[in-house]
Design brief:
Oligomer: single chain
Shape: globular
Strand content: under 5%
Number of helices: 20
Helix content: over 70%
Mean pLDDT: 84
Number of strands: 0
Radius of gyration: 21 Å
Order of helices and strands: HHHHHHHHHHHHHHHHHHHH
Length: about 450
Amino acid sequence: MEHEAKADLSHLRKVVGASMAGTIVEWYEFFLYGTAATLVFGKLFFPQTANNLDGIIAAFATYAVGFIARPLGGVVFGHVGDRIGRKSLLQFSLVLIGASTFLMGCLPGFNAIGYWAPALLVLLRFIQGFALGGEWGGAVLLVTEHSPNRSRAFWGSFPQAGVPLGNVLATVVLLLLSTFLSEEAFLAWGWRVAFWLSVIIIAIGYYIRTQVSDSPLFHAAREEAERRADAGHGVTEVFRRYPRAVFNAMGLRFGENILYYMVVTFSITYLAHRGIATSRILGLLFIGHLLHVVVIPAAGALADLLGRRPVYLLGSALAMAWPFAAFPMFDTGDTVIMLAAIMAGLAVHGLMYAPQPAIMAEMFPTRMRYSGVSLGYQVTAIVAGSWAPLIGASMLRVYDSWMPLAIYVGLSAGVSVIAAMFMRESKGSSLSALDADDRRRMVG
């Protein structure tokens, strides 16, 4: 009987907890930057002009740097992780992103050190993105490679749920600071506290990750690779053996990634530009993130029940329609209606985001899976989520209208619709059987 069927449920839950712990911590810090780019960095780290959106646009350009670094982190961590394992690299990525985030909280502003301020911010953002680029692949594989075939999408969705949990944590911290401090105090030092808190949560996440080990499936694949000289790994091998899977994964990721950052990052800019108070916006996002936490595992279970393809098609089709309803809802200024728009966007996103770990894990054999899923997931971020808030802010500055924004999001989601139509259904597939098929292909 395959190792998946033998997986002990209590051990699987421990693996899920270890994976989520790090994901929560790292996305707390990554989301913190995205929120601070709108609320703080545009004012503090860049020269000011007559238009407030100019500083925000500049801050979002540094935000994009983290996404550009993510594929590099994915490639490096994937290459090494396919050789030595997932666990040790996950611990390293946790420390790296924690250190870079803490140092961001120590940076002086533009008025103190001039252009060194944005330069150092870009450097730390690059390190943060590099670490996160290696985090996702290792975290989801730690879970999916331990999971039973029949419920891989459900269990694999829990690291994804760690993303909104990290966002909830970041939102709560920023909400409390911005509520109880004056605007002057928040800009002067209050925002730094949120970055310094990373030291505490990094220590907790690191400890939890010491309590788990790599899957038997990975150990078997590594032993097989040591016996076979032709059992390659890394980026070159992935593109040589499984190019269709890589590009299919990128297409699935494209619309989902843009939708997410338009909902959770650009919406802050859009609503602030329409005169909505910061504390009110953060409160709306807090509730939206809580819904997202619930939707993601539910959508993962649905992908195990109905299949990966129909769930993804539904999510990407709804993502095409969402912006045309959401931006007019934002313009009402009504709290309930704005909240409904955010919650709808995150619910739609969950339908696409939840099955991704299972879908991508089932595309690649174990010997190159870390590299494969990291490429499919992280490279797409360069042309998708990295630029979405920047493109959105630029469109808003030029047109001061929601229609170009809605068209941009709708067309992006259309790319994922097409990718979902061409993906292979892998519900209930065996990762061991995938490895066996890979070995036959190498011999052939």
